[in-house]
Amino acid sequence: MQHASARPKTRRVPAFVAVAVAAVLVMTGCASGSAGADDTTAATATDGVVIEHGHGSTTITEKPKRIVALGWMTPDIVAALGENPVGVEEVWGAGDSGYTPWFEDYVTDEYGELPEIIPFTEEGPNYEAIKALKPDLILSLYSGVSDVEYDRLTEIAPTIPYIDGPWNPGTWEDLTRTVGKAMGEDEKAEELIAETETQISTLADEHPEFDGKTFVWGLTLDEGGTDLGVYLKYDPRVRITEALGFTSTSAMDSFVSSAEADNWYTGVSLEKLYDVKADLFAAWGGSAADAEYTVDNAVVSRWDPIAAKSYVIYSDQAQAAAISAPTVLSLKYVLPTYVDDLAAALQGKPTITGK
């Protein structure tokens, strides 16, 4: 299927592997559900806070002030919790400035200056650039940091890589709690989570028409593709849409059973697409042309949500990134527009962005 390995990454991996990455957006995935904060962060030890992760555990003995935040999502959380990161990587979805628009706006307003952008290297983390920033903590929670990379990063400063597995950030709530624990800002993390959950529930209350409507979250077709990529129930895009009042397609169980290993996505053969019942289709794609190609496909165009013009396809990188790698900052940026687009789609007014 198309876009198979696409997920939010720094530019060290071709930004749209899979067409993607794929296209362009990189996908976020929560491969197999996510551990709660209590599962990933140990209690405060006598000599500091201990955080267990995929490469062992990291002890933080003092409240960090100079944080390098690598990859997706983490920079947003660090900034929202009260520290301007000293360095960040450019990620897919960033604007011409090198920063995602919601991060740039928030940091500019709160701190008056933006972090250093760590130059990209093909070989992995830019150790020299990171070391030059003199960090007292390195966070790389949404990443695929290898054993060797982790060891080299820890020579620079205490490092927290992924918790459960490579490229699996868990839920946005759990990630916020983990960063909050690392920064000694547990209470503030809970406040941010509560504020964001209130935003989501308020938007849901404002749109009772979402209640009970079924949906599929997926990807645009590759040219000549015979499968339509779809996301599973633990993917953040699916979870957020459900939180807004929608119900996942009744075909979700078959999606899950057909997925390989711990993937957060699978493919539906176009021959079986009509068996997938849904009132709405939401997706992202690498370009508006990909979106148009998808909805104009001879098979897809006759699928119920497409025939009813009940679809939302984000080919705008910032929008796609904001909903695919959600944080307390990106959700404030994207949710009002996303909800408006969902409401319009249910009225037969589709959305394709990135034109």
Automatic annotation (TrEMBL):
<feature type="signal peptide">
    <location>
        <begin position="1"/>
        <end position="37"/>
    </location>
</feature>
<keyword id="KW-0732">Signal</keyword>
<dbReference type="InterPro" id="IPR002491">
    <property type="entry name" value="ABC_transptr_periplasmic_BD"/>
</dbReference>
<dbReference type="InterPro" id="IPR051313">
    <property type="entry name" value="Bact_iron-sidero_bind"/>
</dbReference>
<comment type="similarity">
    <text>Belongs to the bacterial solute-binding protein 8 family.</text>
</comment>
<keyword id="KW-0813">Transport</keyword>
<feature type="domain" description="Fe/B12 periplasmic-binding">
    <location>
        <begin position="66"/>
        <end position="350"/>
    </location>
</feature>
<protein>
    <submittedName>
        <fullName>Fe3+-hydroxamate ABC transporter substrate-binding protein</fullName>
    </submittedName>
</protein>
<dbReference type="Pfam" id="PF01497">
    <property type="entry name" value="Peripla_BP_2"/>
</dbReference>
